[in-house]
Design a protein that fits this description.
Low-confidence stretches: 436-448
Oligomer: single chain
Mean pLDDT: 83
Strand content: 25-35%
CATH superfamily of the largest domain: GAF domain
Shape: rod-shaped
Number of domains: 4
CATH class of the largest domain: Alpha Beta
Length: 448
């Protein structure tokens, strides 16, 4: 009997010890949600909060009061819909204030409750968003380079760049302005894209060191450095434009100076609806994009200047050809002997009378030097004197020796050599005049 009682006592003690251990284990397991730094909550199917761990109470002190209207339970309707469709585990993302949470929701069918585990993924989301913005900025950089290769017009190119920044980078508004070198140092807007609603017209900007030149655009042009307004609500330098900016929902801006050969000639201004949205890496890429735009502007200006020069040259060539045709018609329909000679006294054109009088074909003379056929240092000095002084001379009975036809006698002529001048007074031709049955020589001087 005593032995049985002793055994029973041993069993009772062992049972109590086991129970104590189980209770301790249960308490240890129960402490897991209590010690978890992430929010955990349990609700019934009506949305009543039945349990919150300390992290939940600290993060969302009014969760019990607001229930499913609280931002942390903003996905409640979708959760209940999922349960009705037989889904027992639901993963979702929600936003509360500035924080992002990943929620894993388990439906406990045996007790008809919803247990929600949350993990703060704000930093992860921020990195994802930054990466997305960088990828979009890289796309804008690529697209703007593609645009330059297809652009012919500077203004069309700049408007296209603004549209690319809006479409690819997702900002609210972009505009490009050029710095004027006038007395007030004004800034002339030349292109924009996005939601503007008359804002640019209201700016009245300057890059001078005055009150209206202290904003990010004026500062960027004046200093050649990037101008940033991280918060238009509080930045005192942005005060002159704050009211109009806030009407349109702008909250911040960044401005990149456009330079060529080290001199700033304009700026690209980018506006956002967020406060301080521009990351350092994004600014680096946008700076590179602006450098490409500055190069594009310079390239298109050069291309336009070359095109205009080519058009002017073409017009001048047409005009010159027309005048040459008139000259040839005159030369071929006069009894006088005419020769057209360049700066170095090479034949450019001769008429048939001249050829007949000298026993030469045009092909023999053209491109050859006048004094190869009629050598005379004295006459050369006379030609040069008229060319260099711009003064007409008259000569009587000057000899003309034909080098390659020595059998011809030396002939003597009365010459009048008259310089022909352009609008600037520079001599570009000589006209040699002879009396009846004389030779008329015209010497045209082209700049070397």
């Amino acid at each position: 009997m005593e032995e049985n009682n002793y055994n029973n006592l041993k069993l009772l003690v062992a049972g109590k010890e086991l129970l104590s251990k189980n209770e301790e284990e249960l308490r240890r397991l129960a402490s897991f949600p209590e010690l978890n730094p992430n929010p955990i909550a349990e609700l019934d199917l009506n949305g009543q909060v039945l349990y919150q761990n300390p992290a939940t109470k600290k993060l969302f002190p009014n969760l019990q009061e607001k229930g499913t209207t609280h931002p942390w339970l903003s996905n409640w309707d979708n959760i209940i819909e999922g349960v009705k469709n037989g889904i027992e585990k639901i993963d979702c993302e929600i936003i509360t204030g500035k924080n992002y949470y990943h929620q894993t929701v388990h439906f406990l069918s045996n007790v008809q409750r919803m247990r929600i585990y949350g993990v703060d993924i704000t930093e992860q989301k921020k990195k994802e968003q930054d990466l997305q913005k960088l990828n979009r900025t890289l796309l804008a950089l690529s697209n703007s380079n593609q645009l330059l290769m297809k652009s012919e017009s500077e203004i069309d190119y700049l408007n296209g760049v603004c549209k690319i920044i809006i479409d690819d980078c997702g900002y609210e508004m972009v505009w490009i302005g050029f710095a004027n070198d006038d007395e007030e140092k004004t800034i002339k807007p030349v292109a924009y894209a996005g939601f503007e609603d008359g804002y640019i017209e209201s700016l009245n900007l300057t890059w001078a060191d005055t009150e209206r030149g202290q904003g990010p655009t004026g500062t960027a042009i004046r200093t050649g450095e990037i101008g940033v307004c991280e918060n238009m609500l509080t930045d005192p330098k942005f005060a002159p434009w704050r009211g109009e900016a806030l009407k349109r929902g702008y909250k911040s801006s960044v401005v990149f100076p456009m330079k060529t050969e080290g001199k700033t000639f304009g700026a690209v201004s980018i506006y956002s609806k967020q406060i301080s949205p521009f990351s350092a890496k994004e600014i680096v890429l946008l700076k590179e994009l602006t450098s490409d735009v500055a190069y594009g502007v310079t390239s298109l200006k050069t291309k336009q200047a070359r095109r205009q020069a080519e058009e002017l040259l073409q017009k001048n060539e047409i005009k010159l050809q027309s005048e040459k045709n008139v000259l040839n018609a005159i030369m071929d329909n006069t009894k006088a002997s005419l020769a057209y000679i360049d700066r170095n006294f090479n034949f450019v054109a001769v008429n048939s009378t001249y050829c007949e009088n000298n026993g030469r074909a045009k092909e023999e003379l053209l491109g050859k030097n006048y004094f190869d056929f009629f050598p005379s240092e004295e006459n050369r000095l006379l030609f040069e004197k008229v060319r260099d002084s711009g003064e007409k001379i008259e000569l009587n009975q000057k000899p003309l020796v034909n080098k390659f036809q020595p059998w011809q006698d030396v002939t003597y002529w009365d010459w009048t050599i008259t310089p022909v001048k352009n609008n600037e007074g520079n001599v570009y031709g000589l006209v040699g005049r002879y009396p009846e049955n004389w030779t008329l020589s015209m010497f045209s001087l082209y700049p070397e």
